[in-house]
Structures are given as structure tokens and as C-alpha cells.
């Protein structure tokens, strides 16, 4: 059924409507959003949110690729020659093979391209919407009119929307309006119906980008009804004609093969004194057909499509096909911590305030149920006490101010659902860290909605920025009888960044200055804070610092747009620390250990404190558990790493495994350092500022759930589950695919080499007319290439990963498809198969038929040609069964393919074993059906010759097994032995050697940092 599209009054001037009018017109709720059922119904009504005519798979282009290639040209020449010599049977078969090959190739490639196109579309931008009162992520093409969309910094707007909530929102609308400067948005209703797009400040438009702030809006138009749809332009198109390095190498190989075919044709004519006859021409065509791997393009396409589909099954969406090949060469993974190595299910479990000491918070998850206990002061290694229960609504003024800051300097939402089916359940919308703080505030009875209701009013916001690692908000306090309310600034962020903004600290109800002439108070205070922070961080807690100050309003200053961030975030008063626990994913540690087994090193680049990062890194095996955190050269802060020159970094024996307080520029520097060491790196990222590092990495991996659209567009692969283990699965899949391509290329080319051996050596045989006798006919060669060899090659392309797939070192990034071993195997196996097949032909002709080569046996059967026809059938059957047996050899470069254990694993590859069985069964009708054998294939039924075929098969299998054993003995092992343990031992050894080097959290550095902060 075709897509039904209904215009939703495209000229409706929603920018002139109030929010209530828009909601009523679109029958939606700004709190609850649409229900899933209603959204599905509207999707059927309005169609998918996508532009028409923006690419897709073109059937005629696929068909053209099937006929516009070297193989078809050669076959067409053979067809013309066959018909010219009145060999209608052979000409008809070749023509049938051309049509059949084109049809099969078209069907396979068209389906494969459609599969890859569908998966590419999955990597297009997603949308954050509210449905069933819950914030969910959907593919952008499923957004419908009436949906509630949530926008954040870095998002690409997925549909035209009427805004109903904005904060510091600015958008880049250059694509639509040509305006190069960001446009500030607001909620004011616009009176003029004909207001220009650039002046509709209460609207955002599809394909524009959020450059600052956050907002929510009601979708009013989708797809071709959007403003961008009206001018038929798309930002999100993906080049479907991208050629991967592998495809480029195969194209070069095709030219080489074509040149070799020409050389072989010249050889054939040269042997015959360059005298043209139909017989010589047909023989030359047969030789040229033999060297061309007809099924190669179809097998490559099928393998690529299968690889992309398998990647999608493990929750990795491939945006660029070249990344599939690159994954197999990855030597280093640079990963974020939060949500990738950890669960991103954060809960606040500890607090510390000067004077009050430590607090313990119970409860887990989004449900704001739990208790807060004051434990008092303690030092590192001291056992915790149960603590004194803080009853809700009580606590010191200091306690209440800290919880106010946690609640108000926070954009997350926590509320009970109103939906009938889930009524009363707690749901959370927002950043996991902010959700954890919001849950804490609810437990203390200081929920943000309650504070807003009391009269706290948000005036201005400076959102979190990864370059400064903090955010701040300006609030007006509730009015009193004597005043309209004062103003307070609340701030939260990384401890080091907050301390640098503070000039005082809160101690109970008093505020104590950190400014004196000698700086002693500041230094001692910062040492105390860092000590308390380490107590929390070494437990694996993510530590946030809170601060506040009173703000005196200057008359005439615009409090929304006229404030300077640097000025606002100065002279702050330190409040306290909050420790948030984010447990590692259960699968992270096994995945990291699997990386070590595969010769891949893992680096954690995180914004967390060094002690927090190190604690989690130990839990997931990035660094050994038994090494100290202090004075550890494997752990650095971004400030340390960034301060090093490139020369200094290159002199390090080991790059740090943990980089804390990481900035986007640090990620770029790490990638550059890895590249200078000739290493192949992948980098994860989710923010707008991560785009440079994603592009710089050999394989950029964006987070599908938490990642911005800008990051996704800069990436090669998008993880739909944000899971580190998925990266490892993707690398394993990349290795499997490259290994399988080597297997089927070796199989196809070995068969071609074998056929060439038979045909070229066969030039020595001349009949009574002094014409060369074909050891195999042209139709036999075509049948071997298309029917016998190609299906098993496709099966090899679908082989499951070998047991050693992730126990082998990464392949060199410079290693092409044809490594020395693959080339050697191709010729060794090809020569062996060709020699055995030719030997069978020779034995039948000279051993059983007295060397009688007959007359004109290439053109037709006669009693005088019976010996040649039986020999040709024997040679053909030998080649068939050897090619099928070689498919089992090609399953592994070195492991035996003929043990009972390995033969049993064939059941996991239905395509391979079925193609072998069917290929073997097809021999019998080809050999024994009258007319088909004599007139088309130019051979005769066999009897005793089957003994030669069986003998050749046994000899070949024995030869292959002996050859592999020789390779195992003489060549370097492919696998790595217990590399996980060796990697841990190597890190311990390096740490011991470099123990004199200051680490990221060395005490001397803390003192120096305190001095630097004081000087600032």
C-alpha cells in the first residue's frame, strides 16, 4: 500500500496562535504528549517525516552494473563467435548464462542495496519526544504532527515546531534563510500572518541546528510539508554510491585480470602462429573466461550487506561502509566512561559539607524514596558510622542551601505519570546526573516543582559547557513583605573548576573568606576539599561540587541576554560535594579483557575526577586492580596531557590508559598521538564538541541514545545502546567480514588459476588437423565459474567468526586484501587442482585411449572423439569436486578443514554446505543427460573414470592437510597466547619502572594546583 499523505492545512499560521490554540488544533498535550496508539495512527495518516526524491536505490543503476563490465563483454564476444560458427548450442548456453548471471546478480545486489539503504536510514538523526508521558528516542522519520519534541544543544531539528518552552535558545537557520548569525528564539505570539521565516522567533524549522540552549516544541508540519520540504532540500542524505577501499582494490584487480586475459589470448594465438580460425578464437575466449572470477562482484555485495545487517543486530548502525573494513585493523579504543562503560543509572549516595561532614543517602533508581543520614567527619580508610537520620524538612541552613542548589541548578524533570495504565509511576526526563540530583532533592523535601511553587523564578541560565565543566543559573527568590525578592546564583560542576570560581566557603550559617594576603587559607581549604573529594572518588563516585552567591541586580541590565558568564561565575561561595555512583555495566569488564586477547588496548577518556575514573577503570580491567592510583603514569589529567609537547608525548613508552577531566581538545590530541605511533584508533563521542575527534579517528563512533545529531553525522558508526561491549562486537564483526572476503576471493581465484593451468598446458595437445584440443570446453568453464564455484564462495562470505577471530592481533592498516599468505595459497591450491585435473585428462587420453585426440573434437562429437569427450568429462568432474572440496579448505588459512570437529561446524553455515551438496549433485545430469552432454558441454558419460576423480579428490585433501601443517610449523603463529594476562603484567611492569613520575593525583601536584588557584 502506498504512503498516504494528507496536508495539515499547510498555510495555517501557527506562529500567530497561542500555545493553547496550537495544542487544541493538533489535539495534543504539552505535558503528556501523544499516546503511542495515536502517534501510530497519525503516522499512517500523514506519512513518514522524510523528504521525497532524496536518493534511494535505483533499480536501473543496479541492472546497468550487471551488464556493463568486462565479464559480460567477453561473454558477448564468445556468443557472437559461437553463433558465427553455427555452434548454436554453445552460443545459446553462453547467452543464457549472461542473462541468468545478470538476473541473479541484479536480484542479489538490489536486495542487498535495499538492506543497506534501510540500515543507513537508521543512522539518520533521532528525535527526543514525549509520548505516553515518557521521554523516548524515536527515528526522526517517525515524528508526527502533534508530537512534543525536546531540543538540546547540538540537535538537528527534525520537523517544523511551534515552541512552548525555551531557555537561551539559538538556532542556525542559514540553510533556510541565508542568515549566517544564530537566531535567538522566544515564545511571544507574532501578530502578522505573513511574517518572514527569519522573524518567526517562536518557531523552529526542520534541518536547522540548535547551537545554544534548550527548548520544547509542538510538531506542526513534517516531511514535504515543512519549510525545508517546500524547497526540496535535504541535509541528511547519505551517499549510497560510496566506494570502500576494498571495492577500489577489487576494481584494480579487475583491470589486472582483464590485462592477464588479453595476455593469455595472445599466447593462444601465438601458439597457433597467429592464424585465425573459429576453433582458435573459441579456445582463446575459453581461456579468457577461465581467468575472470564471474561471481566476485555479487559475492562482495552480498557479504557487505550481510555484514551491515549483522552489525545492526548487535546494535551498531554503519553510516559509512569503509568503516566495516577499518574495524578489523583497530589497535586502540578510546572510550568515554559514563553510559558507555557504566550503566548511566546514577544515584546520589554521599554528600560532604564543611562543618557538617559526610552524609549518606539510601535508595536507588528514579523513585525518590530513601533517607539521609549525617555521619560527620572521617578520614581515608576510616570505617563509616550509621549516622544520624535527617528528617524531611529539617537540617541546617547549610544543608538546605546545598539541596536548593542541587534542585534548582538542574534541568531534569521528575514526576509521577498521569497516564491511566501507569498512573502514579515515577518517570524522569533529562541528563542522568541531573536526575540523580533531582531525586536527592525530592528525598530531602526540596523538589524543584515545590520550590518553583514557593516563588523561586528562573531568570537566566548558563548551560553546562564541556570546555568549562560547569553550569550556573540565576534565580529570583520568593518575594517577601518588604521586597520583591533577592537574586541568587547557583552553580554546579567539576570540583577544580568550581574552586577556581570561589572566594569564600559556607560554614554553617557563616561565610568565610578565602582571600588573604598570603593565600594560606585558600591553600589549606583546597587541600581539605581535595582530601574529601578523594575519599568519595576512590569509592568510584562521580563528585560534583556546588556553590552559590547573592547577586545584586544593576538597573538597566538585561538579565536574560546582557550578563557576562565570566562575571556571573565569579566570587562564588563554596557549599559542598555530592558523590554520585554509576555502576559499571556487567558486560564491560569481559569486553575489555576480550580486547586484550585481541591485541587491542583500551583508553578511558572521561570528564570525571582522576580517582573516580581510576576506580571505575580498575573495576572494568582497563588498569590492574592491584596497582596504586597515586604516582601511576597510566593515569593522567587532561591538564597534564595537554601541557605536554608532541615530542614529550611521543617519548612516553606508554600512552595513559586513563585521562581524567578530559576536554574535546584532549581527545583530538590523543588521536594524533596514536596516529604518530602508526596505530589505528576508534573514538567514541556524544557532544557537539566531540565532532573533531570523531572525524580525526580512523573509526568515529557516536552514541545513539545520548549523542547529539552533530556527533552522529560526524561519525562512521552509531551505537544504538551506547554500550562499550557493542564496540567490541563491531570490531569482531569487522574482522569476520574481512577474513571471509579473503576466504572467498582465495576460493574464486584458486579455481581460476586451476582452470588456466589446464587450458594453457592443454595447448600442447594437437589433433589430426594440428588444432589445439580443449581439455575443458567453454561451457564447462562457464559452468564451473558460475554454478560450481560462485555459490560456495557466497557461503564462505557468510561464515561465522572463527574461534580465533578475537585472539589474533589486529591486521595492519596497510595490509591489502591479498596478503603474502593469501596469494601463496591461491597459487599453491590452484596449481594443485589444475595439475590433478589435467593429469586425469592425460591418463584417460593416453592411458586408456592410446593418445587418440580425434579430429574437430572441439566442435562436435564423433566416434573418433569419444576418448577426448570422456577425458574432458573426467577433467571437468575432477575440477568440480576439487573446487567444492577447496571451499572446505578455505574456511581457515591454517586449521584443518577435514577433522570431524570442523566438519560438524558446517551445520552453522547452511549456504555453504547446501552449495557443496547441490554442486556435487549437478555433475550427474550434466554428464549423463543425452544431448546436453555431447552437444552443449562437449563431453561423454563416464564409467571407470570415476576412480580417477575419487583418487584426485583424496590426493588433494591429503595435500591440503600436509600443506597446512607445513605452514603452521614454518610461519609465524596467527593467534595470541593469553594476551589478557600479559597485558596486565606489562602495565604493572611499566608502572613500576615509571613510579618516580608524578601521577595525576600526586600530593605534590595537589599543593601546586592549590597555589595556582590561589594566584588566580
Oligomer: single chain
Radius of gyration, CA atoms, in whole angstroms: 36 Å
Proportion in helices: 40-55%
Tell me about the biggest sheet?
A: 11 strands, mixed
Enumerate how many helices there are, as a single number: 35
Average pLDDT confidence is 83
How much strand content do the residues show? 15-25%
- By secondary-structure content and strand pairing, the structural class works out as alpha+beta
Report on the architecture of this protein.
45% of the residues lie in helices and 16% in strands. With 1016 residues, it is α+β, with helices and mostly antiparallel strands. The strands form 4 sheets. Strands 10, 11, 12, 13, 16, 17, 18, 19, 20, 21 and 22 form an 11-stranded mixed beta sheet that branches. Strands 8-28-27-26-9-23-25-24 form an 8-stranded mixed beta sheet, sandwiched between helices. Strand 10 and strand 11 form a beta hairpin. Helix 12 (397-408) packs antiparallel against helix 13 and helix 27 (820-847) packs antiparallel against helix 28.
Task: Considering the chains and any ligands shown, give keywords for the structure.
1016 residues; alpha+beta; eleven-stranded mixed beta sheet; eight-stranded mixed beta sheet; 16% strand; disordered N terminus
Compact description:
By secondary structure, this protein is an alpha+beta fold.
Q: Could you give the topology of this structure?
A:
Layout: H1 19-26, H2 36-46, H3 59-67, H4 70-84, H5 88-122, E1 126-131, E2 134-139, E3 148-151, E4 160-172, H6 174-177, E5 183-184, E6 203-204, E7 209-221, H7 227-230, H8 245-271, H9 278-291, H10 296-313, E8 316-318, H11 322-326, E9 332-335, E10 347-353, E11 357-361, E12 372-376, E13 388-390, H12 397-408, E14 413-416, E15 426-429, H13 432-443, H14 448-454, E16 457-465, E17 470-476, E18 487-493, H15 495-499, E19 502-507, E20 510-513, H16 520-537, E21 541-551, H17 565-568, E22 572-581, H18 588-597, E23 601-605, H19 610-619, E24 635-637, H20 638-643, H21 646-651, E25 658-660, H22 664-676, E26 681-685, H23 691-696, E27 699-703, H24 709-714, E28 717-719, H25 724-761, H26 778-797, H27 820-847, H28 866-889, H29 900-904, H30 910-921, H31 923-928, H32 932-937, H33 946-970, H34 979-993, H35 1003-1015
Parallel strand pairs: 9-23, 9-26, 19-22, 23-25, 24-25, 26-27, 27-28
Antiparallel strand pairs: 1-2, 1-3, 3-7, 4-5, 4-6, 4-7, 8-28, 10-11, 10-22, 11-12, 12-13, 14-15, 16-17, 17-18, 18-21, 19-20, 21-22
